[in-house]
Design goal:
The complex is a heterotrimer of chains A (169), B (300) and C (744). Chain A contains 5 helices and 5 strands; from the N terminus they run ββαβββαααα. Chain A has 169 residues and is an alpha+beta fold. In chain A, helix 2 packs across helix 5. The longest helix of chain A is centred in the last third of the chain and has 14 residues. In chain B, a hairpin with a 2-residue loop joins strand 6 and strand 7. Classes of the chains: A alpha+beta (169), B alpha+beta (300), C alpha+beta (744).
């Protein structure tokens, strides 16, 4: 897998970072060790990704980087150079909701909502790889996204429902 | 976030050769960072001593899995997801695939790497006992060229290893010689997912094959037992292996194996668990492995 | 039934769309121009005197805003019930992580370094960390006797029953601290304007608690303090009183700097410095007849309050009142006590004392069963409260609750009898031992005793210029469904579509004080007031001749617009009116403790793997009578979420303490269940109605916290034949007990 690192690297100080976020080309100037989570939230004002723990344990910061689910609190900005990033804000076109988002609404998958962006992206990642997961597979796939409110049951139902309605994705 | 990004350098030369040169120019000054699932946690907690980092994430030379008839060579920056999803690893080295499945959640599996697991050298690392049992070899690279070292003995003490300050792990080699073995891997953590292991065992065993002679059917021909989280480094229970080699798996032998295992390990009390618990579970896993090996003999 | 249009339906969550699109705004998503970041310098010792504070010379401290206790304009305390908790330590330290001084700077990274550059020199004093040390009183750390509060419940004549008892059963049961672990850490932004005063935005449950605390701290009048709740990422009681502290800190920095100040904790600071569930110790001594009837008993319920009184007296109250469970006690003496230790003060966490005392009661029932030679099922059946009987506080059960029938239903749903038998068989071989256990319990909804009267909640409903209706309450949404349910109630009352009703953001400038969002009171008590206030605006329109008794939504909208155009506003206020015949004696701790109880039977099935000594919950049945299910999906979500936290309380979540400081303040080391750890939790409801609750609802938010732990530990005992009287039960505990018993 070759990914060109188009970075004008200075030994210290900020660097130019080019990447695509939710389909939009972005060029920013940040410290290479800035956390991707902070870059998204503070440079790009995409506050959907949340900091719950800062140690890659809760998954509320999770986003898709080149189609793979990652904890953005553990990704240094430089390693996101030339990547394609999808955050919760990019999951649906304009005013439409994706099947996953609708399912979460219908099934009670979101209570306080803080884990929800990461959880939905985790589910999206699963459905991209496994379009018809059973309950155990859903639970395993989401085991890196902690939810304190729901006890997970209605989240699992939501993902199963979205899988059944995949056609509208 | 307890570190200031402005205090750190991170560069991504994009070529292995450049990284190697950099390490040679300033040995010990640059910390290689692959997926960052260990380094970034330390950084976030304000506990990362290094100030200069060089990214080896996505170096194509480190992300490939090479297959040859007798060996597979896994690039050091292959992620756990790659390990899980690779046919040959899943079928011929299932203990490595299960370790990959046990390490963190999906998001961490997409970024954590086998090389990173080795170099971070946590005694509780999930993939290391499997590498010990499979008698992996490490291919190390530096400006001086490459050298192959057995993984056994690579760790010389807690977080100390046989790696020169200007060296990098390029790949991990595994010989394809374990068909017909029982592959037994078991981990216990504080919960079913995203848990640092309290005990992690990876064991391989093969019984002597004698046509139709049931009495000899459960005699151990080859056995390797590796354990994590019970010593400052992951260890092979060579005393246990010696105790059981060539013997029939009877209850008395299992008891002897338990005793030998208890003597061979040095578990501690820590924030996650206790020495006594770890010792007990290690014994249970060793016994379970031997029992399963015996059962396998019956169905052969 | 005629009122089933919206009540009883799973209408869409009011703020749901924002939550699934990432548009919901939590406090850390907000910034203000010119904003500084604030941080707290905290004590590293559990108890002592501050000798010196020094600031490392490498920093230009003039760049920083520095606030100490001396900068406090008002009273250096967190006004709550007592005034003993300082906002900032002033010379003396009483617990690790106690706030000493505050810093602010525009650069959050520099700020972090500055915190580390402040050195505090202490003269340490002896510190105590356990209830037993506190009771021993060799070191007095609070008041004259380390005791925050005591309660005594006395019914009948306990002393006379011992000699008539066939059995006297004793037991001691303990529960550990539990961290609320909301996924969103505590955070606030404060801004100060000399004319307008202080404004605080934050992640919080009770805007008016913060309002009251800021008035006292900042010496500001009521109309010079404004508190606004942002979308809140989980709370569970952990943001009931704590926000007054973080808000106070941000307010002080904002006042001193005349800049807005944001303080957001990271996970470790939140875990180590903020409140947790009170650890508890309950001692039971029970006189029982040979046919298994409780003749009487003594219950000693003690909780560890940490260094300051804060909410301990109220937690103690609820725990003490619930200590007798859903059983008939003809004679009982219950002593409740909250004691001080040098730990960060413990606080509210879902259940609020009841999970602790009910754990003890339900474990004790199984012990009584064994002693008497009856099954866990039969012992409970023989002692259940019946309608017409009185509780330990002599409250008469007036509703037609049939606990025996509820128990039967739960047993059937869980296949209890068949499984118990099957497990006993299967457990004879193999390393996996299975067990099944039950817990039967109750939870009083709303504030205790005279609490609701004292709160005197006020609710508003107003018509808007566009003809829609807005609910005005200080009750907050933090996932449990406040916004949705209160809008449902208003819409139902006014016979309008659900979409025609919205709810105002809780802002003390805009909404009246409907009381704190605690005690499972929002749907039941506040909901009832919403209903009244809603009917109030309908009445106003009818009185104005703009509406007739029967109307369509369009007619309502037109009438509302017309009224507002003519009169400027359309608003109705409803005030809490205590129901007649509900009497509580605060002195004797006797009477109607709660307007109503919800009742439940939980059944837990566990499997213990003896190769790893790990218990896992395999199946769970949660059956409860809740008055009326206002919103099936929300109600089910509350139960499952509460059961999940109860499972954590029982077998996963342990706070590791050393010298009063939490050592495992990371999500890696404080273990809450993931999706891979929890079984399918089956939820069932019964509805007896509730005359005191909106549309018959009883509070349900905390109920599910009470049952899981004892049901699970009862199941573990069933599986292993080994007794655990302390939670959490970790694999290491199972190992030590099994090993000690020689069972293999």
């Amino acid at each position: 897998m070759t990914v060109p690192m188009s970075v004008a690297s200075e030994r210290r100080g900020k660097c130019e970072l080019a990447f695509v976020v939710n389909g939009r080309r972005e060029n920013i100037r940040v410290y290479p060790m800035e956390r991707l989570l902070d870059v998204l939230r503070h440079e790009l004002n995409l506050t959907g990704a949340k900091e719950g723990c800062g140690e890659g344990e809760c998954g509320s910061c999770s986003i898709l980087m080149n189609g793979e689910l990652v904890n953005s609190c553990l990704v240094p900005a430089l390693q996101a150079a030339d990547a394609e990033i999808t955050t919760i804000e990019g999951l649906a076109a304009e005013s439409q909701l994706s099947a996953l988002q609708s399912a979460f609404l219908e099934c009670g998958g979101a209570q306080c909502g803080i884990c929800t962006p990461g959880m939905i992206l985790g589910a999206r990642h699963l459905l991209n790889k496994n379009p018809e997961p059973n309950a155990d597979e859903i639970r395993e796939a989401l085991s890196g996204n902690l939810c304190r409110c729901t006890g997970y049951a209605q989240i699992v139902e939501a993902v199963a429902q979205a899988a059944r309605h995949r056609s509208s994705e | 976030m307890r570190s200031d990004p402005a205090d750190y350098e991170l560069i991504a030369p994009g070529k292995l050769q450049t990284v190697v040169q950099l390490l040679a120019e300033e040995p010990g000054k640059w910390l290689p960072i692959a997926g960052g699932t260990d380094i970034m946690v330390q950084y976030s907690a304000g506990k990362l001593p290094a100030r200069k980092l060089v990214s080896i994430w996505n170096l194509p030379e480190l992300r490939t899995v090479e297959i040859s008839p007798n060996e597979i060579t896994i690039g050091a920056a292959c992620t756990y997801t790659q390990l899980r999803e690779h046919n040959i690893i899943a079928s011929e080295f299932p203990m490595l695939a299960s370790a990959a499945r046990w390490t963190g959640g999906i998001a961490n599996q997409n970024r954590g790497t086998l090389g990173g697991n080795i170099v971070n050298a946590s005694p509780a690392a999930d993939s290391l006992p499997a590498l010990l049992a499979y008698e992996a070899e490490l291919i190390l690279v530096s400006i001086r060229g490459e050298r192959r070292v057995p993984y056994l003995g690579f760790h010389t003490g807690y977080k100390k290893m046989n790696l020169a300050p200007d060296e990098l792990i390029r790949a991990i080699g595994l010989r394809r010689q374990f068909s017909g073995y029982l592959h037994y891997a078991r981990k216990v953590g504080a919960r079913n997912a995203q848990a640092i292991s309290k005990v992690c065992v990876a064991a391989l065993g093969r019984l002597r094959r004698h046509n139709g002679l049931d009495a000899l059917g459960n005699m151990i021909e080859d056995v390797r037992i590796a354990v994590g989280s019970v010593a400052p480094i992951p260890i092979r229970l060579t005393d246990v292996e010696r105790t059981v080699a060539g013997k029939s798996i009877e209850p008395e032998l299992v008891q002897l194996a338990r005793k030998a295992a208890a003597a061979a390990i040095q578990p501690i009390d820590d924030i996650r668990s206790t020495a006594r618990y770890r010792a007990a579970v290690t014994g249970n896993f060793v016994a379970e492995f031997l029992q399963q090996l015996r059962e396998q003999g019956k169905t052969a | 039934m005629s009122d089933q249009r919206i009540i009883g339906k799973s209408v869409p969550r009011k703020e749901g769309r924002d939550k699934v699109t990432g548009a919901a705004r939590y406090i850390d998503d907000m910034t203000l121009p010119g904003m500084l970041y604030g941080a707290t310098v905290r004590s590293q010792i559990p108890r002592g005197i501050i000798k010196r504070i020094s600031f490392a010379p490498q920093f230009d401290w003039d760049e920083f805003v520095v606030v100490t206790a001396k900068d406090i304009p008002g009273k250096n305390c967190i006004a709550l019930i007592g005034d003993d908790q300082p906002c900032l330590a002033d010379g003396k330290i009483d617990h690790p992580e106690e706030p000493i001084l505050l810093l602010a700077h525009a650069d959050p990274h520099l700020l972090r370094k500055a915190v580390d550059a402040v050195t505090i020199e202490y003269e340490p004093l002896p510190a105590i960390f356990t209830m037993e040390e506190s009771e021993a009183r060799t070191e007095i750390i609070w008041g004259t006797d380390n005791t925050f509060k005591t309660f005594l419940i006395s019914k009948g004549d306990v002393d006379s029953v011992w000699c008539t008892a066939d059995f006297i059963v004793e037991g001691e049961y303990t529960t550990g601290a539990q961290e609320q672990l909301y996924i969103e850490n505590n955070g606030v932004i404060a801004a100060f304007d000399p004319q307008q005063g202080i404004t605080v935005w934050g992640s919080l449950q009770c805007p008016y608690y913060v309002h009251k605390a800021l008035m006292a701290l900042c010496a500001l009048k009521e109309d010079k303090v404004r508190v606004v709740q942002m979308e809140t990422g989980g709370a569970f009681g952990g943001k009931e009183d704590y926000p007054s502290i973080i808000a106070g800190h941000a307010a002080l920095l904002a006042m001193k700097s005349a800049r807005p100040v944001k303080i957001i904790y990271d996970r470790t600071e939140d875990m180590t410095a903020t409140t947790k569930r009170h650890p508890s110790r309950t001692r039971h001594r029970t006189a029982v007849s040979k046919d298994g009837k409780i003749l009487g008993g003594e219950i000693d319920f003690t909780i560890d309050g940490g260094a300051y009184a804060t909410l301990s007296s109220v937690v103690l109250s609820r725990g003490t009142i619930h200590a007798g469970g859903p059983y008939y006690w003809p004679n009982v003496r219950i002593r409740g006590k909250a004691v001080a230790t040098n730990m960060p003060p413990h606080g509210a966490f879902r259940g609020f004392g009841a999970p602790q005392s009910l754990f003890a009661m339900e474990r004790h029932m199984d012990r009584i069963a064994q002693t008497v030679g009856l099954s866990p099922v039969e012992i409970r059946r023989r002692n259940f409260l019946q309608p017409g009987q009185t509780t330990t506080t002599e409250q008469t059960i007036r509703e037609e609750i049939d606990l025996s029938k509820l128990l039967d239903r739960a047993l059937e749903l869980s296949s209890y009898t068949a499984k118990k038998k099957r497990f006993a068989q299967e457990n004879q071989t193999g390393p996996i031992k299975k067990g099944i256990g039950i817990a039967t319990f109750l939870h009083g909804a709303g504030f205790t005793g005279s609490g609701e009267r004292y709160l005197a909640s006020v609710v508003g409903v107003e018509g808007c210029a566009d003809g829609t209706v807005r609910v005005l309450v200080s009750s907050t949404e933090f996932g449990q469904g406040t916004n949705t349910v209160l809008c449902q109630i208003a819409a139902e009352a006014l016979e309008l579509p659900y979409d025609d009703v919205c709810i105002a953001q809780p802002d003390t400038n805009q909404v009246p004080n409907s009381g704190p969002t605690v005690a499972s009171r929002t749907a039941m008590v506040v909901g009832n007031l919403v209903r009244s206030a809603a009917l109030g605006i309908k009445q106003a329109l009818i009185a104005d001749g703009l509406l007739s008794d029967k109307y369509s939504p369009e007619e309502f909208r037109a009438a509302c617009k017309h009224h507002i155009a003519k009169r400027g506003e359309l608003r109705s206020i409803a005030r809490y009116d205590p129901p007649p015949g509900v009497f509580w004696d605060d002195e004797k701790y006797r009477g109607e403790a709660y307007a109503t109880f919800a009742w439940a039977v939980y059944v837990a099935e566990v499997a213990v793997d003896l190769s790893t000594y790990t218990a896992t919950v395999k199946e769970f049945v949660a059956l409860q009578e809740v008055g009326k299910v206002l919103h099936p999906i929300l109600a089910k979500g509350q139960i499952i979420g509460g059961v999940a936290q109860g499972i954590g309380f029982a077998i996963y979540e342990k706070v590791v303490w050393q010298n009063g400081r939490m050592q495992n303040g990371q999500m890696t080391n404080y273990i809450m269940p993931t999706s891979a750890d929890l079984p399918k939790i089956r939820v069932f409801f019964e509805e007896l109605g509730n005359v005191h609750g909106a549309y018959g609802a009883k509070g349900i938010g905390e109920l599910p916290m009470d049952g899981p732990a004892p049901a699970i530990v009862n199941a573990i005992e069933d599986a292993l034949g080994v007794r655990f009287d302390s939670i959490p039960v970790l694999p290491e505990d199972i190992f030590e007990t099994v090993f000690a018993d020689g069972v293999r």
